[in-house]
From TrEMBL:
It is a multi-pass membrane protein. This is Organic cation transporter 1. The lineage of its organism: Eukaryota, Metazoa, Ecdysozoa, Arthropoda, Hexapoda. Keywords: Membrane, Transmembrane, Transmembrane helix. The chain crosses the membrane at residues 54-79, 195-218, 224-242, 254-273, 279-299, 371-388, 400-420, 432-452, 458-479, 491-513, 519-538.
Length: 600
């Protein structure tokens, strides 16, 4: 049989709507499929079929539901409950705790007043026999209304040791930053599947180990750091496997579902903690389920897109053929055709790839500006989102109720964001809700400092969480749209890594609340104001042809009017003004292969 000859070779790179090579002799061709990129193979084998749905609902959703239990349990385990000095020989005739404290515990005017506006009792000092004020000589008593014990109460991480929980959270945040960089890179080198199960192993083993070394703060912080390295990729890797075998429409559904299940897991966590009440039982109950995720080793495939990208074409073909069979599409291609197609596409990819890296993001002025602005927005989102979540330990009221409300509010936030980004646009949605978060955080600061009303405080913080969750969703979307195709993963990875590094500031910011409960809110309000200004100068991407090349990315946003809701022009359309149309024969042939109607 003669060599495959492509009649559209001269124009194939310009055909964006179809991306499919065809020829008159296609019916006789046995060694190749008329596909121009990997996504075209997915169209043939099914990109929204039974395999994708089973993976989403039977694997990714259960995995995502368990992840908040493993990664966020320390917020409860390190909680510092109300405490006061232990006094020997407590008078049994004084039955009221408040009356007893009036005799033995001095008032502390440096602490924020209670909900009744009255000063609180000291947590670290008591009256001695001669009525002088001394530090607690015999330890502390703890309020066990919400917990039987936490790590902080069991090991007296209060007063002079009150910074221990902050140090542990900081070590974990530092691990997040290192893990984002190292494991993110390894997932591109050794695969998504092994890295995902490595992150489960790291998180479960070192989280469990931390419960047995908690008496040694240095060892405890080391285990927190190592466990922290696993979190970012533990969430990203399984979703990435599924997203890489879906088309762009179903990809959005995948991300939406995983995020919603994550929120459900977050909202369920305080219920589990409330039921357990004792720190070791809480730790075991929220960590052990992570070990069940190893059962998915036999069910979760490696990403065929990744296998293709690193040249493991035979393995990629095997996975793709299994998908085709499960999706009832095996009759649309043969193993021989798939092997030939993968080999041809891999050769084309190798020829077209240039040397790029993080430095390329700063090689052009406009691209560099967009990179910096997006990274600033991404970092602020991480710090404020993490800060609001951690600050439930400082808020008035019941910690379990506060955490539940701040978790469940993410559901309407995401739905609102999905509606607005396609109507108002990405840019102004980001700006408006950064502004909203600024006002809500400033209001929270004023409320806790001047009004001291727990109900109004929780309402304002919930509004802030609603706003920052929405901006977080938008910044992820912008990261996928502003960078050019060949730098899309690099750009998003760079912004995510810098953001994770900045996340180290979250626990420190929350710790300032021990000096003045309004400080974290003022800081978050200031950060959101910076985010609002930065987001205003990012280009709008709604209904725009996304940049394919570095030159496209450097033109992206040029000519946009600042106050416009829509871009003034779509510069990348200039690259396709003379785009050729496919003949009716070629069009019908590709529709037969994909099973989809194609607009020419």
């Amino acid at each position: 049989m003669g060599q495959y000859e492509d009649p559209l070779r001269s124009t194939s790179t310009d055909i964006r709507e179809l991306n499919c090579l065809t020829a008159e002799e296609n019916k006789e061709e046995e060694n190749d499929l008329p596909c121009n990129e990997f996504d075209d193979i997915l169209d043939i084998i099914g990109s929204q079929g039974r395999v994708q749905k089973l993976l989403l609902y039977a694997a990714i959703c259960p995995i995502t539901a368990i992840e908040p239990f493993i990664t966020l349990n320390m917020i409860f385990l390190l909680f510092q409950p109300e405490h006061w000095c232990y006094v020997h020989g407590r008078d049994p005739n004084i039955t009221s705790l408040t009356d007893w404290k009036n005799f033995y515990i001095p008032l502390d005017y440096t602490r924020p007043p209670g909900s009744d506006g009255q000063p609180k009792f000291s947590q670290c000092t008591m009256y001695s026999e001669d009525s002088s004020i001394i530090k607690c000589p015999s330890g502390w008593e703890y309020d066990n209304t919400e917990y039987e014990s936490t790590i902080s109460s069991a090991y007296n991480w209060v007063c002079d040791s009150a910074d221990n929980p902050t140090d542990a959270f900081t070590a974990q945040a530092f691990g997040n930053a290192v893990g984002t960089l190292v494991l993110g890179h390894l997932s591109d080198k050794v695969g998504r599947k092994p890295i995902f199960f490595l992150t489960i192993l790291i998180n479960v083993v070192f989280r469990m180990l931390s419960f047995f070394v908690v008496h040694n703060i240095v060892m405890f912080n080391i285990t927190q750091f190592i466990a922290g390295t696993a979190f970012p990729m533990m969430f990203i890797a399984p979703s990435m496997i599924l997203a890489e075998i879906c088309d762009k429409d179903y990809r959005g559904h995948v991300y939406a579902m995983t995020w919603m299940i994550w929120v459900v897991g977050m909202a369920a966590l305080p219920l589990v903690v409330w039921f357990c009440r004792e720190w070791f039982l809480i730790g075991i109950t929220t960590t052990i389920p992570g070990a069940l995720l190893f059962l998915y080793w036999f069910y979760l495939p490696e990403s065929p897109r990744w296998l293709f990208s690193v040249g493991k074409l035979e393995d990629a073909a095997c996975v793709l053929m299994k998908i085709a069979k499960s999706n009832d599409r095996a009759d649309r291609l043969t193993k021989r055709q798939l092997d030939g197609t993968l080999s041809r596409l891999y050769s084309l990819q190798a020829k077209s790839e240039g040397r790029t890296g993080v430095w390329t993001l700063f090689s052009r002025m406009r691209l560099a500006k967009n990179t910096v602005l997006l990274t600033v927005c991404w970092s602020i989102n991480i710090v404020v989102y993490y800060g609001i979540t951690l600050n439930t330990t400082q808020m008035s009221g019941n910690q379990f109720v506060n955490f539940f409300m701040l978790s469940i509010i993410e559901l309407p936030s995401g739905m609102c964001g999905a509606y607005l980004v396609d109507r108002v646009g990405r840019r102004w949605t980001q700006v408006i809700f950064f502004c909203g978060c600024t006002l809500a955080c400033a209001a929270s600061a004023a409320i806790v400092q001047f009004l001291n009303n727990p109900v109004i405080e929780i309402i304002s913080v919930v509004v802030a969480k609603f706003a920052i969750t929405l901006t977080f969703l938008v910044v992820y979307l912008q990261g996928a749209e502003i960078f050019p195709t060949q730098l899309r993963s690099t750009g998003s990875g760079f912004a995510s890594t810098v953001g994770a590094a900045c996340g180290i500031l979250g626990p420190i910011m929350v710790a300032l609340g021990t000096y003045n409960v309004s400080y974290p809110y003022w800081i978050m309000a200031s950060l959101c104001f910076v985010g609002m200004i930065s987001a205003a100068f990012l280009p709008e991407t709604l209904n725009q042809t996304l940049p394919e090349t570095i030159d496209d990315a450097n033109k992206f946003g040029k000519g946009n009017r600042f106050w416009s809701l829509r871009p003034s022009i779509d510069l990348t359309k200039e690259n396709s003004k003379d785009k050729p149309r496919l003949s009716q024969d070629n069009l019908k042939h590709c529709e037969k292969l994909t099973g989809n109607h194609i607009n020419n």
